[in-house]
Amino acid sequence: MLATQVLRFGHSPDPDDAFMFYGFATGAVQVRDHRVEHVLEDIESLNRRALTGELEITAVSAHAYAHLADRYWVMRTGASVGRGYGPLVVAREEMPLAALAGKKVALPGAWTTAALVFGLLAPPCETVQRPFDGIMEDVAAGRVDAGVIIHEGQLTFAEHGVQKVADLGQEWHRETGLPLPLGLDVVRADLGRDLADEASRALRASIEYAVAHEDEAVAYAMKFGRGLDRERCRRFVRMYVNDDTLDLGDEGERALRTLYERGAAKGILPQIPQLTFVG
């Protein structure tokens, strides 16, 4: 087992992740006598850092985990799952998803789940990688024909002069009948199974603490929301901090395996990863 007094927990600077971390942030929840330290990075940066196993616990894209299964285990708690909603494809004008064939589309990182699902559901087109928080501006300015937006942009896109082309979570559900697993919280395997299980249970306790103190936790989460007022922040948090977040469950596991099976079948993923769940 790794001997440490600090457990670094990587998560993106977004309201839903901040809400989940609220119990840790207030000191109401601990993992043994370890100090839980949060490391804020955009999700694609966390995906890359996880390649080297740098952080003990971290949020990663479900897509990225296909490349990390040899060093991290999946926590049953902490997943971001969309039930009939997910990343949005936007353009300057309304059009069907099929109309993007051959066009230039901005993605928020090659290893994001948004990129994987877009690759599964959209027609062949030219894709470019852009920082997630600049994609709507790129679309509105005509630097790209369309873009895939994540995080709170799913609620604020109409204010940026762009139109919704498709909701990838909705399209995924239409094809599979399953929810869309977007993000996972994972724990490094060298911590050992006992500590990994405890970390997952502690994250659940942190989320439950936030739910029990929702107004205070939402106020904390608002510090991480770009352009969200209190009620839209609350709405966004409730979209991605839900029953699936507390426990991925059998259906969530099936959705995750289906995502990997389809990604491998289409050649986007090199293989179907072996999944080990803790908590």
What does this protein look like?
The strands form two sheets. Strands 1, 2, 3, 4, 5, 11 and 12 form a seven-stranded mixed sheet that branches. Strands 8-7-9-6-10 form a five-stranded mixed sheet. It is built from 13 helices and twelve strands. The mean pLDDT is 93. With 279 residues, it is of the alpha/beta class. The protein folds into two domains: 6-81 and 182-278, D-Maltodextrin-Binding Protein, domain 2 (3-Layer(aba) Sandwich); 88-176, Periplasmic binding protein-like II (D-Maltodextrin-Binding Protein, domain 2). Helices cover 40% and strands 20% of the residues. Helix 9 (193-212) packs across helix 10 (214-221).
Layout: helices, strands, pairs:
Layout: E1 6-11, H1 15-20, H2 22-26, E2 35-40, H3 43-50, E3 57-61, H4 62-65, E4 72-75, E5 80-82, E6 88-91, E7 104-107, H5 113-121, E8 126-129, H6 135-140, E9 146-149, H7 153-156, E10 163-167, H8 168-176, E11 180-188, H9 193-212, H10 214-221, H11 230-240, H12 243-246, H13 249-265, E12 277-278
Parallel strand pairs: 1-2, 1-3, 4-12, 7-8, 7-9
Antiparallel strand pairs: 3-11, 4-11, 5-11, 6-9, 6-10
